[in-house]
Design a protein that fits this description.
Largest sheet: 5 strands, antiparallel
Helix content: under 10%
Structural class: mainly beta
């Protein structure tokens, strides 16, 4: 059975394996064929193909512009994310 997880721009997601800084939550900065993520522990940014992302995501922790996210040091609100024209 395929497990479909619904995620959007600026959501905070939990990945299966932690980053080198031992944090496991990431913010989605770009959606498309590739997905850009930012580590909420150290601020490191990476891009990965959507296919790999769908395999590695565990669950969505918080949705975009949730007040819980505002307390996080490296969180960027949805209206501050630069969108291509």
């Amino acid at each position: 059975m395929i497990n479909k997880i619904d995620y959007q721009l600026a959501d905070t997601v939990l990945m299966k394996k932690p980053h080198a800084c031992q944090k496991n939550n990431w913010e989605i900065l770009r959606l498309g064929a590739d997905i850009r993520l930012k580590c909420m522990g150290c601020g490191h940014i990476l891009m990965m193909p959507r296919n790999d992302f769908n395999k590695r995501i565990k669950k969505v922790l918080t949705k975009a512009n949730d007040p819980v996210n505002a307390k996080l040091e490296y969180y960027l609100p949805k209206d501050k994310i630069v969108k291509p024209k």
